[in-house]
Amino acid sequence: MQKSEVLFAFGVIVIMVGALFGGFMISNLAIRNSGSGSSSTAAAQAYDLTLVITTDNWFNNTIGYEPAFYVLQNNQLTSSANISLPANVPIHITIVNYDDGAAPVPAIFANVSGTSGNVVFIANDSTVNSSQPAGASAAINVVDPQPVSSVNDSNIAHTFTVQLGTATVLNIPIEPSSVETATFTLAPGFYHWHCMAACGSGAAGWGGAMQTPGWMAGVVYAS
To answer: Rounded to two decimals, what is the model's pTM?
Structure first.
């Protein structure tokens, strides 16, 4: 083979290898970017939202401590007063609840609605996940999170309820000391979210945090 032919063949091989390797890199980049908030098509298929509920939050000198929802974002707890979500995209929500007490709630808000299959998966709550009966002396053996369509209205600490006007489009009852996950989708719009359990201050529990954005209420923008 002449020298020019050798160089030509070598050049073709280099181009082919480069194309294959480049395609491999692009493919892997798309996989790595999926779900990361990038503008790629794959990334637009799902969005993760993590909410954390804590109790020892100083409200003021009159009321003292109140529970509050936070958004976990970039390893930091941020305000839940304004939550922005992509519209028409599956939202994978995780709610981590550190509140170990129940609060009164209208029975209708004990039902899960607006999530995929109208269920929520509950973990870390012994009444749902334990393989041992209540009061058993053996250690609790936690099993996989269980899909639940409703919970006992006497065993609800909070709810994450999203409404459009007076219509409830999403309701997730949250049990004490639990981790709950679900998936939902919102159409474009401006929504309000509330906790429908009377977990605030005052005689009826509807004061303080219940009336304050970023505590037990706020807005959701879906766009």
So the answer is: 0.75
